[in-house]
Amino acid sequence: MKATKSLYTLPLLLLFPILAHAGDVPGTYAKYQWAPAVTGLTAVDYDINVQADPGYRANVRWSNRFHLVGTSNGGYTGMEEKADRGPLFVFSVRGATQYQAGSPGSSCATVSGENGGVSCSMPYNWVPTDNYQFQLAYAGGEWLSVTVTDLYTNQSVNLGSILTDATSISPRGMESRTNYLEGSSPNSNCYNQPYSDVQFTAPSGNNGQYVATVSDTGTNTTCASFSNIDTYPNGAGSEQFNGVGNLLRGETQSENDSLCADAGNGRTNDAAVTTVTCNEKSAGQAWVYAKDSTMRLQSNLCLDIANADPSSGAVVVADQCNGGVSQQWTLEGDGNILQSNLSGYCLTEGNAGAQLTMQVCTGDFTQQWSLPFLPVLP
Predict the structure, then answer these.
(1) I want to staple 103 with a disulfide (CB 3.0 to 4.6 A). Which of 114, 157, 167, 281 is the partner?
(2) Could you give the 3-state DSSP secondary structure of residue 174?
(3) Ricin B lectin domain spans which residues (predicted)?
């Protein structure tokens, strides 16, 4: 997803870096409270509105977590952007073993790991800024299901039903979370995680008979300075911002010929960066411009000037991020020119397939690039 401008002016992105640690990712949560008389619910409605999709190779989940009455089991339901699958709706319950698929395109399976369980999902091209209502409900007995309704189009899909060991949903321990799913990767850190923005409405229960309010909010202890959370008046919900100061993850596309800056498989040190046909599935084309002025791939390779060569004509590679000035770039012009902090020269495209080089800045189309900026919201 591309837009021509950012919600933030570029100087705000060029903040002083903090120490980056492998496996660190941002994240936020909002916890809820209900009236003391509410002890169990047969249906709960949650609204989720992703304002800024972090990009096609992001790995982020926005979900509402719940517990079940009389058991230690619980689960979550919400939306994901997954690098290997694209946008999804998801529904999961710990400790479960039996399930029924929902609408065409949905699928369920048992999952391993601590406590096991069942996870249902459905590929769905959800639209940023559309409001999606998730209804978690017991339709009879111990079968728990999730129906998702696009409140703009009024179209609904069912994600499936899961047999639980309960008959009602607990009001205790409910929370809305933004989870960055690359935290288990040694290549992840605060600077290569893309920006996201989501709005959660506080849940209501039993067809609006009860309404929860936000009782507490917080951020991950890692990357805390990359996260913000705002609470709506009267605890009616929250807006959660993560990857703050970074841009979205996506293509860096030449405005000369619409080819994309490419680092091969996106995992090889000192790989030549060229321009090739754009491919949304390519790990070697999924860049994040970070608030420390680096351009990073998911593997934490940085756009780099080979051998820190300050001369005109120096070639460009993707190499392990090291904090060096040869990996730092300033966005000039309308945010579409990448100027090296090392030499003052600009990232320049040659012929298709040729390695990118550093040349005197002229503003020519071969030096103009379309980055995945933050969307301008109405």
Answers:
(1) 157
(2) strand
(3) 242-372
